[in-house]
Design brief:
By secondary structure, the protein is an alpha+beta fold. Helices cover 44% and strands 14% of the residues. It has a seven-stranded mixed beta sheet with strand order 15-19-18-17-16-20-21, sandwiched between helices. The chain has a six-stranded antiparallel beta sheet with strand order 9-8-5-6-7-14. The radius of gyration is 29 Å and the shape is globular. The two termini are 55 Å apart.
C-alpha cells in the first residue's frame, strides 16, 4: 500500500508505525459526508475526549501532497477553534478555499498543540538540488506556523544524510532525524518533507508528511560522498604559510566577494576569467601599490568542491599597512580572524566592522577596541600612523590614483585593444582590472570618510544624500540617456554591458535589449542634478574633524576627493567591464568557429581557449569535463563561512543568508507587490509570502524575492513546485537594496542576484 495519500490518510497510516514521534488524534471526513450530515459530524467530533480545548481544522484535499504537486499552504487552515458554531464556520472556510471541491476531498480536525516550544519543517534532501543533506528549519515558541508562514527568526541547519555522526545544534531536534528516517522507510520515498513540533515535555509530534518535489536529479550518493571526502581532506591539510594568521577561514562574501560577482557555484569560464583578471594576481598587486602588505603570488579565491570562496587569511593579511612589523601584523590578523569567528554575521561587512584598512573620523574609537583586546598603546599608535599616512597618499592627487586613471583612459580607447584573445585578456587585466581594483579601494576610502562625517555630526544624513545626488556617475548617465536617447544611440553607448559581468550566458544589452528595457514606457528626462554647496558651518565642522584625524587636506579638498573617487570608481568599472564584455564576445566567436555554443563555452576554462593548437574535439572534451564538474558543484551545499573540515558535513545557515529556490535563472523589472505593481513578467518582491500571495504565481511572474522566509516556507515550496526562481529570506538590508533597483537578474544555481541598472 502507498502510505502517501491525502494529508489525513498519510497521518492515519503513519500513526501506528512511528516510534520516534506521535500523531495527534484526529477526526477526518469527506466533503460529501459533511454535506449529507454536518450536524452528526459536529456532534461526533466535539464528542471526542480531546475536543474540549482549542481545535485545528486543516485541509486534506485530494490534490494536496501528491507526487506531482504539493500545493503546500494553498488551502486554508483554521486554528483556535472552540465550540460547534466556530467549528462549523471553520470547516466551511476550509471547504471554501478548495474552490470547486470534489466530494472526495477531506477535512481534518485535531486538537491544537498548546505547549509547543519549537516547530518547523524538515526535508530528507536539499529541496533545490536534491543533494543528500537533511535540512531542518525551525523556530522557537508556541506558534507552530511561523516557519511555513516565512516569519523572521527561523534557523536552518544542514547535515549530510549519509553521515550518521552529524547532529543538529539543538538536542531537541535529534528526534527529527530519526523521524525522517522512519518516514522514508515506511513510505519508500527518499525525497520527502515533514512538519513537526516539540512540546514542552519534549515529545515530538508529526503534523504532516508529503513527497518532496525536486526537479534536479543531482549526482549519485557515492559520487557525492567522494566529493565530500576529497574536500574534507583538502581542508584538513596543513594551512599555507605565505600569509599571516593561525587559523584558516574561507568565506563567500569578504573582500572581492565571489558570491555577489560570479556566484557561489560559477561555471568554469566565469571562474577562470575572474581568477585570471582579479583574484590570482591583480588584486594583490593593486593593493600593494596603495600601501598595503604585499601578498603577490597568493591567490585570493579558492575552489572548494566547485564553490568559490575567499581565503580570509589572505584578505586580512593584505589589509595590513605595509610598514607595520611582522609581529604586530600577525597579531592583528589573528585578532581579525578571531573576531569574525566570534561574530560570523559580519562576514559581508568585514571592512566596516572588523578590519582597520584606512583612516576614519572614528578611528580612535576602533583603536580603543584593539586596546581592550590586549594591544598596547604604542602598537595602536603605530597602526594609526600607518593608516593616516596610507590614507593621505590615497587622497593625494600625486598618489597611485593618478596612474590608475591614466591606464583606464588608455583602455577606453577602442584602438588600444589588440585582436588576439591572449593579448586582449592581458590588456584587460593590466589596463582594466588592476586600475579598477585601485580606484575601487579609493572609492571605499571615500565612502568610509563620507560616512564618518555623518556619524560625527559634521554633515547631516540629508546633506550626504544631497551630496551623492549631485554626483554625475555612469549609473546616472544610463538612467538619463535611457529617458532621452533613441534606442539605437542608447545601445551604441551602453549595449556592451551585461548583468553577469563574467558570464557568457548573460546577454549584453544590445543582444537582447527588450529583455532589459521597455522602450514604450520611458520616463521623462530627469533634471540635471543640483551642485552641492556646503554651508560655512558645515565646512568649519569638517575642517575640525580633518585636523584631528591628521588628514592633509581642507574641507573643500576632502569633499572634492570623495566626489571624484566615487565617480572614478564607477567610470573605471564601466570601462573595464565593457572590455570584458567584448572579450566574452571574442570567446563566443572562437566557439562558433569550432561549432560550440555559449552553454558549452561556459564550461571551458579560459586557459584551454588560449592553447596554441585548438581543436573542436579538445574543446568539446573540456566542455564535458566542465559540465560534469559543475553538476558535482551543484550538489554541494556549504556554509557561507568555513572554519574546518567538519563544516563540510554539517552547519547552520546564518539568518542573513537568503535561500535560493530552484536552480533556474530569471530576469525582469522589479515589481513592488505590496505597493500594487503588476507582477506579470517581473521579479516580484514581497516582504513575506504567506498563502494569500499565491495569485502572484498565477500571473506569469518571472521570479520572486521575499525579505523573510526559509527554505521550507510556503513561497519557497510553491516556487519550487512551479519552477519559479526565487530568493527567499533575503533579510531587510538586501531587500531594501533590491527593491530600489529598476530590474534584477536571479541565478539560483549560482546563488546570485544582479542589479540591472
Amino acid at each position: 500500500m502507498n502510505v502517501f495519500g491525502t494529508k489525513a490518510e498519510t497521518l492515519i497510516r503513519l500513526a501506528p508505525l512511528l516510534r520516534s514521534a506521535r500523531v495527534l488524534p484526529m477526526v477526518s471526513f469527506s466533503v460529501g459526508q459533511w454535506r449529507r450530515d454536518e450536524s452528526a459530524l459536529l456532534t461526533h467530533t466535539l464528542g471526542e475526549p480531546w475536543a474540549d480545548g482549542p481545535l485545528v481544522v486543516r485541509s486534506s484535499a485530494q490534490t494536496e501532497d501528491s507526487t506531482t504537486e504539493s500545493l503546500a499552504g494553498h488551502f486554508h487552515s483554521e486554528l483556535g477553534v472552540c465550540g460547534p458554531s466556530e467549528l462549523r464556520l471553520a470547516v466551511e472556510k476550509v471547504l471554501g478555499s478548495y474552490g470547486s471541491a470534489s466530494s472526495d476531498d477531506q477535512v481534518l480536525v485535531q486538537p491544537q498543540l498548546t505547549d509547543a516550544v519549537l516547530s518547523g519543517v524538515a526535508c530528507s534532501c536539499d529541496p533545490s538540488s536534491g543533494a543528500p543533506y537533511r535540512v531542518i528549519t525551525w523556530s522557537e515558541g508556541a506558534d507552530t506556523t511561523s516557519v511555513t508562514r516565512g516569519t523572521a527568526g527561523a534557523r536552518t541547519w544542514y547535515g549530510l544524510a549519509h553521515d550518521p555522526a552529524v547532529r543538529p545544534p539543538d538536542p531537541r531536534l535529534e528526534g527529527v532525524l530519526s523521524l525522517l528516517t522512519e518516514v522514508i522507510e515506511y513510505t519508500k520515498e527518499d525525497r520527502c518533507e515533514i512538519e513537526f513540533a516539540v512540546s514542552s515535555p519534549g515529545v515530538l509530534y508529526l503534523f504532516q508528511a508529503r513527497p518532496l518535489l525536486v526537479k534536479e536529479d543531482g549526482v549519485g550518493p557515492v559520487e557525492h560522498q567522494a566529493q565530500v571526502e576529497h574536500l574534507t581532506q583538502c581542508l584538513a591539510a596543513p594551512s599555507r604559510v605565505d600569509v599571516l594568521g593561525d587559523r584558516p577561514i574561507y568565506g563567500v562574501m569578504p573582500d572581492w566577494n565571489p558570491a555577489e560577482i560570479i556566484g557561489l557555484r560559477p561555471r568554469a569560464l566565469a571562474r577562470s576569467l575572474y581568477q585570471r583578471l582579479i583574484t590570482d594576481r591583480v588584486w594583490a598587486e593593486s593593493r600593494a601599490g596603495y600601501g598595503y602588505r604585499d601578498v603577490t603570488g597568493v591567490p585570493l579565491m579558492v575552489d572548494l568542491g566547485g564553490c568559490a570562496y575567499i581565503d580570509v587569511r589572505a584578505s586580512f593579511t593584505s589589509f595590513v599597512p605595509a610598514d607595520l612589523d611582522d609581529d604586530l601584523a600577525g597579531r592583528l590578523v589573528n585578532h581579525y580572524l578571531n573576531r569574525l569567528a566570534a561574530e560570523p554575521y559580519l562576514h559581508d561587512k568585514v571592512e566596516f566592522e572588523i578590519v582597520l584598512s584606512c583612516n576614519a573620523f572614528d578611528l580612535n574609537r576602533r583603536l580603543e577596541g584593539l586596546r581592550r583586546a590586549g594591544f598596547s598603546a604604542a602598537e595602536t599608535d603605530a597602526l594609526r600612523r600607518s593608516l593616516v599616512h596610507l590614507t593621505n597618499e590615497i587622497i593625494s592627487d600625486q598618489g597611485p590614483r593618478g596612474a590608475d586613471l591614466e591606464l583606464v583612459s588608455m583602455l577606453s580607447e577602442p584602438a588600444s585593444r589588440p585582436a588576439g584573445l591572449a593579448a586582449l585578456l592581458d590588456r584587460c587585466a593590466e589596463w582594466g582590472a588592476r586600475p579598477f581594483a585601485g580606484l575601487a579601494r579609493a572609492g571605499f576610502v571615500a565612502a568610509e570618510l563620507l560616512g564618518g562625517l555623518v556619524r560625527r555630526g559634521a554633515m547631516t544624513a540629508a546633506g550626504r544624500d544631497a551630496f551623492l545626488a549631485s554626483l554625475k556617475t555612469v549609473a546616472a548617465d544610463i538612467q538619463q540617456d535611457f529617458a532621452s536617447l533613441g534606442k539605437a544611440e542608447f545601445l551604441r553607448r551602453y549595449g556592451h554591458l551585461r548583468p553577469g559581468t563574467y558570464d557568457i550566458l548573460s546577454p549584453r544589452y544590445d543582444e537582447d535589449p527588450d529583455r532589459y528595457f521597455d522602450w514604450t514606457r520611458r520616463p521623462a528626462p530627469a533634471p540635471e542634478p543640483s551642485p552641492y554647496r556646503p554651508g560655512l558651518d558645515e565646512l568649519r565642522a569638517i575642517d575640525v574633524l580633518v585636523g584631528k584625524a591628521g588628514i592633509t587636506s581642507d574641507a573643500p579638498g576632502l569633499l572634492s576627493f570623495i566626489a571624484q573617487a566615487i565617480k572614478d570608481r564607477e567610470w573605471a568599472k564601466f570601462v573595464f567591464t565593457g572590455v570584458l564584455s567584448e572579450t566574452l564576445v571574442r570567446i563566443g566567436d572562437i566557439g562558433r568557429e569550432f561549432g560550440l555554443n555559449a552553454e558549452e563555452l561556459s564550461h571551458i576554462e579560459v586557459a584551454h581557449l588560449l592553447h596554441p593548437s585548438l581543436s573542436g574535439a579538445d574543446l568539446r572534451k573540456s566542455a564535458r569535463r566542465g559540465s560534469e564538474a559543475y553538476a558535482r558543484a551543484r550538489s554541494m551545499v556549504l556554509p557561507p563561512l568555513i572554519y574546518s573540515s567538519e563544516d563540510v558535513r554539517a552547519f547552520e545557515v546564518p539568518e542573513s543568508m537568503p535561500n535560493f529556490v530552484t536552480q533556474g535563472r530569471a530576469h525582469g523589472k522589479v515589481a513592488d507587490i505590496d505597493g500594487g505593481e503588476p507582477p506579470e513578467g517581473a521579479i516580484a518582491l514581497v516582504v513575506s509570502g504567506d498563502p494569500g500571495y499565491d495569485w502572484i504565481l498565477a500571473r506569469g511572474v518571472a521570479g520572486l524575492v521575499t525579505a523573510y522566509g526559509g527554505v521550507n516556507s510556503h513561497m519557497a515550496i510553491r516556487a519550487q513546485e512551479l519552477g519559479i526562481p526565487a530568493v527567499i529570506g533575503t533579510g531587510e538590508s538586501r531587500y531594501r537594496r533590491w527593491m530600489a533597483a529598476r530590474a534584477l537578474e536571479i541565478d539560483c544555481a549560482n546563488k546570485l542576484v544582479k542589479v540591472i541598472p
